[in-house]
Design brief:
Distance between the termini: 32 Å
Mean pLDDT: 94
Radius of gyration: 17 Å
Shape: globular
CATH architecture: 3-Layer(aba) Sandwich
Helix content: 40-55%
Low-confidence stretches: none
Bound molecules: S-adenosyl-L-homocysteine, magnesium ion
Largest sheet: 7 strands, mixed
CATH topology: Rossmann fold
Number of strands: 7
Number of domains: 1
Strand order of the largest sheet: 3-2-1-4-5-7-6
Length: 218
């Protein structure tokens, strides 16, 4: 928890209810410790979708499909969502959820199975463009994804990056971070420095959920 728990609880108590189907999927994900977007992040995403009204969304990190189905529910009718996942255990659940007829907007979503960096390169080859990118995968790889994401993000598009503050760890000194986490710590700092100083991006970092960076492509 980055922000005072009482404040977060209060803000979350004001959030609009999810559809019953999404609520059930959220509960299932939490029960199985799948790291889906937090309540606060849901609110932010919903607001950004409402503001940006994207037509082509790219998501990196599907997990079991919760955030993809969430975005399909709260985006325009003609919006299309491409989402990438590589872990078989997650894919089994994702395939099931993304074809579940209870989710009326599921047809907007196309699941790409495989290593994100490779799929991103394929999308670049195909000259695909997106006006909204939700980056929510392995944090240590964000820097490696960025050059491809910049090619895929159209001018005026938005890049939303989740988990950038890792429960506040990124603000600790490098030496207080245990060795196992040090590489991620260093790479995340590098990523945040890069997107905040990038000539083509205007970026704000918000202490929402696990930390969310919002970047607009100029
Ligand atoms: N966006 C989801 C949660 C994603 S959790 C939600 O909020 O509902 C992050 C997911 O990214 C994990 O399932 C993990 O397997 C996947 N992932 C991490 N690195 C990846 C990579 N390099 N290529 C494809 N998927 C990756
Ligand atoms: Mg996340």
């Amino acid at each position: 928890m980055i922000v005072n728990e009482r404040i977060t609880d209060y803000i979350n108590s004001l959030a609009k209810e999810l559809t019953p189907e999404l609520r059930a999927l959220e509960r299932e994900a939490l029960r199985n410790h799948v790291p889906i977007i937090k309540k606060e992040t849901q609110g932010l995403l919903r607001f950004l979708l409402c503001m940006q009204q994207p037509k082509r969304i790219l998501e990196v990190g599907t997990a079991i499909g919760f955030s993809a189905l969430f975005m399909s529910e709260y985006s325009q009718k003609d919006c299309r969502i491409t989402t990438i996942e590589k872990v078989e255990m997650r894919l089994v659940e994702a395939r099931k959820n993304l074809s579940d007829p209870r989710f009326a907007s599921r047809d907007k979503i196309r699941l790409c199975e495989g290593e994100a960096l490779e799929i991103l390169k394929e999308l670049v080859q195909e000259q695909r463009q997106f006006d909204f990118i939700f980056l929510d995968a392995a944090k240590a790889q964000y820097m490696a994804f960025l050059p491809e994401l910049m090619k895929l993000l159209e001018v005026g598009g938005i890049l939303v990056t989740d988990n950038v503050l890792q429960d506040g760890m990124v603000t600790n000194s490098r030496y207080s971070v245990i060795r196992r986490d040090r590489t991620i710590h260093t790479r995340m700092r590098e990523y945040l420095y890069t997107i905040t100083h990038h000539e083509k991006l205007e970026t704000v970092i918000l202490p929402v959920g696990d930390g969310v960076a919002i970047s607009k492509r100029q």
